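User: Can you help me understand a structure? I only have the sequence.
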Amino acid sequence: MKLALHELADADLIDIEEDATKFCVSTVTRNVAHNAILRFTRAWNEHSIPNLGIPSQLFAQRCRTSLLPQDTLPPGIVVANEYNDLGGNITLEGKFGEDPLQYHPYLINERSTRFQRDYPDPNLLFSTCVNRNRVPFQNAVLRFVELTYNLAP
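Assistant: Let's start by predicting it. Here is the structure, written out as tokens:
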């Protein structure tokens, strides 16, 4: 996916320095990557390990867990900040770019509806991209940028 994005930038089809474009590129890329990770995790959990079994079944058989009350552990952001204060290094999720539609929920919904109509399957975008056909992923990025700019007030 990174190569696909570099190709778009090198061809001057996207301006990665522009805040709205940063937002669009990161939104599409994160969505496609997130779905790919979920797909991989499901496949891993259901594959057979020789002489051991299937991870999801092994977990279910050996599961000795119980739910903890919500207030048992501090929120993740608190733990991350404490870790950083003690000299560790956790990169907190930051804002990348700015959505020009951020104060217009109706327009955000309209963009999502149109984009999902055109690109309903993020797994297909990932599969084609990793199989050296970057064009569908690139077109999806360009479409999201186009929708964002066309709908921007």
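Now, to help you interpret it: DSSP finds seven helices and no strands in the chain. Helices lie at 2-10, 19-45, 55-62, 76-85, 105-118, 122-130, 135-151. Let me know which part you'd like to focus on.
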